[in-house]
Amino acid sequence: MSADVAHHDHGHAATSGFHATRKDYAVGFGLAAVMTALPFWLVMTHPLGSAALTAGVVIAFAVAQVVVHMIYFLHMNSRSEGGWTMLALLFTILMVGIVLSGSLWVMYHLNANMMTITPQDARQMP
């Protein structure tokens, strides 16, 4: 009976592709904490001098933190679930990219083509 349980656990570890330990969770937590504290420090102290550069660095830390969470806490990799979780992630990223870029395109063109009439333009109208 115990051999069946051990065999079953081994099969689950083989399909997940990642066997988490406390050390893995501690490393993930440490990285996530650092990637939260550093952008906070950057925003509060302004050591970079430029708001645009600071925003870029904070966004880079945010993307890196998403990757850390996916690897250390969600245990996502190319081997888990036969690669389907990675495929689902790529599809989600593609769909979000299409929706965001389409929304920005529509908003830009609405702003450019449907501006309100200024008083000067109103005087020139017949």
Protein architecture, described:
This protein has 126 residues and is mainly alpha-helical. It contains five helices and no strands. The radius of gyration is 24 Å and the shape is flat. The model is unreliable at 5-16 (pLDDT under 50).
Provide the fold topology:
Layout: H1 2-16, H2 22-45, H3 51-73, H4 84-113, H5 119-124
Summarize the structure.
The protein is mainly α and 126 residues long.
User: What's the multimeric state?
Assistant: single chain
Quote the distance from N terminus to C terminus. 92 Å
Shape: flat
Structural class: mainly alpha
Strand content: under 5%
* Low-pLDDT segments, ≥5 res: 5-16
Average pLDDT across residues? 83
User: Helicity range of the residues?
Assistant: over 70%
Total count of strands = 0
Radius of gyration (Å): 24 Å
- Number of H/I helices: 5
H/E element sequence? HHHHH
Q: Sheet with the most strands? A: none
Task: Note the main attributes of this structure.
126 residues, mainly alpha
